[in-house]
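Why should sequence recovery work at all? Because a backbone constrains its sequence more than one might expect. Tight turns favour small or flexible residues, buried strands favour hydrophobic ones, and helices have their own preferences. The token representation captures these environments compactly. In the example below, the structure is given first.
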């Protein structure tokens, strides 16, 4: 029997730091950039920043809503009396608690949507541009409802207008030619 090594050892070669024996830097592809690494144009970076600002404004709106709930219980009671409905204090409390829960849940969902759209559009996901557009349109409709709602405070209305404005500007930036090229480059990968 032969004791010869079936796997001969080759002399180690010294390659320059960061180089592989195949002429490519480690982790790179000979076919160009690795998937998902197309550089974000300025319009996308600005849109993503605006979406993060929108998340902050939504959070501020939620805090403002919670800070002004003191009169909500009285408003509920007054509305029920104006309708001529008989009610108990327990029903007023339940309605108040449900209204607060809805405000908190919808506020947190709003913040999460802003952050999700910032992340997805920053990655160049084509579907995210469409979703962001739909959400901006729904935000505009919501603003119209807010404008016609009695009892909306000036600060709340101003915050809504600024938030929707931020969303609309972000969406416009998503449709710039350099943004469209970014989405196309990422969809091919």
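From this structural description, the recovered sequence reads:
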């Amino acid at each position: 029997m032969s004791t010869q090594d079936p796997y001969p050892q080759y002399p180690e070669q010294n390659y320059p730091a960061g180089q592989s024996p195949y002429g490519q830097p480690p982790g790179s592809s000979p076919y160009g950039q690795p998937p998902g690494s197309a550089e974000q144009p300025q319009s996308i970076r600005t849109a993503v920043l605006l979406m993060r600002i929108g998340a902050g404004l939504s959070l501020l709106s939620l805090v403002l809503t919670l800070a002004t709930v003191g009169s909500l219980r009285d408003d509920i009671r007054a509305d029920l009396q104006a309708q001529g409905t008989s009610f108990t204090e327990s029903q007023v409390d339940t309605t108040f608690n449900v209204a607060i829960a809805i405000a908190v849940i919808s506020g947190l969902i709003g913040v999460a949507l802003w952050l999700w759209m910032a992340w997805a559009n920053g990655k160049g996901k084509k579907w995210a541009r469409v979703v962001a557009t739909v959400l901006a349109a729904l935000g505009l409709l919501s603003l119209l409802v807010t404008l016609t709602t009695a009892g909306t405070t000036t600060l709340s209305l101003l915050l809504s207008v600024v938030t929707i404005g931020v969303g609309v500007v972000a969406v416009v930036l998503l449709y710039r030619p350099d943004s469209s090229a970014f989405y196309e480059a990422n969809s091919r990968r």
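A few observations help interpret the result. The chain has one domain: 49-187.
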